[in-house]
Amino acid sequence: MSTHTNLSKQNRRGFTLLEIIVVVMIIAVLATLIAPRLLERVGSTKHTAAKSKAASISQQITVYHLQSGLSEVPDGFDLTLLLLSQDDGGAPGGPFLNKDDDIIDPWGNPYEVHVPGEVNYDFDVVSWGEDGEVGGEGVNEDITQ
Predict the structure, then answer these.
(1) Which of 13, 98, 133, 138 is the most exposed place for a label (fewest CB within 10 A)?
(2) Phi/psi of residue 91, each to 5°?
(3) Is the Cβ–Cβ distance between 33 and 117 less than 8 Å?
(4) What would the pLDDT profile of 72-97 be if each residue is shown by its tens digit?
(5) Helix or strand (DSSP H, E) at 127
């Protein structure tokens, strides 16, 4: 009797094809339900990060102009000035941003400074969103700070 029990244990070691198909189908259904929500959150996270970064850049532009003794932001202000120390042509107390990536939005596009601003009186820091074009909704919404 022990020989018969050992043979049936040896025959039952692997999974059947049906069991594998069922597991794969369950995983596929779960992935179909979860993936769109995860992708939506990634887009909204980038949008939030872009807003935060634009606010930080806006603050640093204000500090730059206070340190430089300027009363207003000149039209066509170049954000790379915030990356320069005083010895390299920046304002006293600079650099105001640490690295080149600080002036790039989460989608890889540079932020822009618009003078005068549409949202703020003196200037706006703008990212065009995921599509990189003016206008848009959702993850493609423009970010203005």
Answers:
(1) 13
(2) -80, 160
(3) no
(4) 887 888 888 888 887 887 778 778 88
(5) strand 124-127
Q: How far apart are CA 122 and CA 86, in angstroms?
A: 24
Domains of the chain in sequence order: 16-144 (3.30.700.10)
Question: What per-residue confidence (pLDDT) applies to 33?
Answer: 85
List helix spans (H) across 75-136: none
Cα separation, 67 vs 7, whole angstroms? 85
How much is the pLDDT for 25? 92
CA Rg, the chain, in Å?
28
Burial 43-57 (b: 16+ CB within 10 A, else e): beebbeebeebbeeb
- Extract the residue ranges of the chain whose pLDDT is less than 50: none
Rounded to an integer, what is the distance from CA 12 to the centroid of its chain? Answer: 50
Give the integer Cα–Cα distance in Å for 145 and 15: 58
- Which amino acid does the sequence have at 24? V
Signed CA dihedral, 87, 90, 92, 96: sign only: negative
